Amino acid sequence: MIYLQISTAQGPAECQMFARFALQKILREAEAAGVEAEILEETPSKHGILSAVLKLSGSRAESLAAGWQGTLQWVCPSPLRPQHPRKNWYIGVFRLPEIPALPESEGIEFQTCRAGGKGGQHVNKTESAVRAVHFASGIAVRAEGERSQHANKKRALELLAFKLAEHHQTALRQHAADAHKSLYQVERGNPRRVFKGEGFREQG
């Protein structure tokens, strides 16, 4: 699994246009290469995007990512500000640290307890409610909507999986925030890929 962050590093609107183009081109290249690409985070703007985080997976994901990591340059007079003297626009594509997959079944403690609230005499008098605790993250959930302990255990696992997914996303956003700090050190003199004109033609 590979995580890539595309960012304008708070660049102007032209950089935001460029970032949107780069995101779309990465997605097209991924599809052509048989690489599964998923947008995990995207921050849109009026003229494009401020940043995005992509998850890439597949046998060719590594080579695809390697072809994009670094500084990207767009050489073009501003389509938005015709009198603007600047013609070179830069964005960064950075690889984020991979977050280890959280276990789905191991390291979970199940506790049974008496369900409360509505549900009838059977629900209230039996220990049908289930509390599931994931030790590694400290996340705990409780399921008591079903009559049987088995059904509530299954529901607790579903809730825990959802919470763990949220936990994963939070950690990924933190990695993206940490990586963002390095975007101000972009090597403008050594771009990874260069595109020209309003049609974003790539320079070979």
UniProtKB/TrEMBL annotation:
Residues 114-130 form the Prokaryotic-type class I peptide chain release factors domain. PROSITE patterns: RF_PROK_I. One of its GO terms (molecular function) is translation release factor activity. Pfam families: RF-1. Coiled coil: none annotated. Signal peptide: none annotated. SUPFAM superfamilies: Release factor (SSF75620). Belongs to the prokaryotic/mitochondrial release factor family. This is Prokaryotic-type class I peptide chain release factors domain-containing protein.
